Amino acid sequence: MTVKTNNFIKSKRFIDETIERRGFAAVLGEKGSGKTHIIREIIGAKEEKQDKYSVIRITPMRENEKCITQIMSAMIEDVSGETLRRDTEARRRQLRRVLGDATTTVILVIDEAQDLHKSSLRGLKKIHELGWGMKDRLFSIIMFGQLSLKDKIADDELRPRIKRLQLAELTQKEKEEFIPAPQIFSEKALAIFLKRTRKTPLGVLAAFEQLDQIRLDLDRRKIDEQMVADFFSLDKREAIIALDKSYRQMSREIKSLTGEDVSPTALNQFTNGSYKGNTDRIDRLMETYLEKEKTMRAAQ
Asked: Rounded to two decimals, what is the model's pTM?
């Protein structure tokens, strides 16, 4: 199922423009924001047109695993099938000739690009600058990565050459489109779910699957309001515990972030499920705080 969110529509236009001008681009988004869906639907459609496109897909599993020599080798093999030259400079010349002679549009796609070493990113810039005859660009590069990639490509050498598209959060309407069976929610339960679930495709799907399992375990026909409220309260309390911070420290940081006071005692009671005060207020403050923490950790 293809959900044509604003992110999907913008990404398709961004990718098509990059391919048309043989550009160098990066699609950025947090884990679960829909990058894999975009690769499968948009890049996958290009792969099926083998008479028009040659798509080389690379996924570095950890930093330093894919150096520029390995990337050049994959490109030569996939585009031409030629035996690789042993010498690095000879292989670079081989790549230049292979790309210059290619009868299809060559697209290099790198998933999890935040795991590339900085030297590999600079190497990509250099091979992207290869020309052949009257052609000044021989192929396009499209990287998909988490937000930490943004810092890696922010220096004076790479920033002017790499166009960036950062995926936005889903709207409430878009979130509903990712729910496989919205009819199993009561009306109020669905409203709470859409308000409180994470604003990413993976966040919506993961929360739905867990709630649906709870419904089955309880032998209920519908997911009701209380089930959803209990689920998100527990989910948030587990996230607070995982931070491994004192309640006093969290209280200070919430004050700094939101300008609102919440006592260490209230945080302790909220985490233990015994808070008797305004749960909507403290829930809102914790949601803002946890979202900030998640963004900071993703950037590290």
From this structure: 0.78
Check if the beta carbon of residue 124 is closer than 8 Å to that of residue 149. Answer: no
Residue pair 4/170 in contact by the 8 Å Cβ criterion: no
Nearest by Cα to 117 from 196, 190, 64: 64
Cα distance between residue 84 and residue 260, in whole Å: 63
C-alpha distance from residue 94 to each of 57, 91, 125 (Å)? 19, 5, 17
- Phi, psi values for residue 143, rounded to 5°: -100, 140
Q: How far is CA 271 from the centre of its chain?
A: 29
Q: Distances from the Cα of 235 to the Cαs of 134, 270, 286, in angstroms?
A: 58, 12, 12
Query: In this structure, are residues 25 and 165 in contact, taking their beta carbons and an 8 Å threshold?
Result: yes
| pLDDT of amino acid 184 | 96
Pick from 100, 92, 124, 108: nearest CA to 54: 108
- Please give the Cα distance from 27 to 38 (Å, whole number): 10
Q: Which domains does the chain have, with CATH numbers?
A: 6-166 (3.40.50.300), 172-299 (no CATH)
Beta-bridge mates of residue 12:
none
Residue 208: strand, helix, or coil: helix
State yes or no: pLDDT of 91 exceeds 80: yes
Q: Which residues of 206-223 are buried (b: 16+ CB within 10 A; e: fewer)?
A: ebbeebbeebeeeeeeeb
- Taking residue 231's Cβ as centre, other Cβ atoms within 10 Å add up to 20
> What's the pLDDT score for residue 61?
60
User: Which residues neighbour 220 within 8 Å (Cβ) at sequence distance 6 or greater?
Assistant: 227
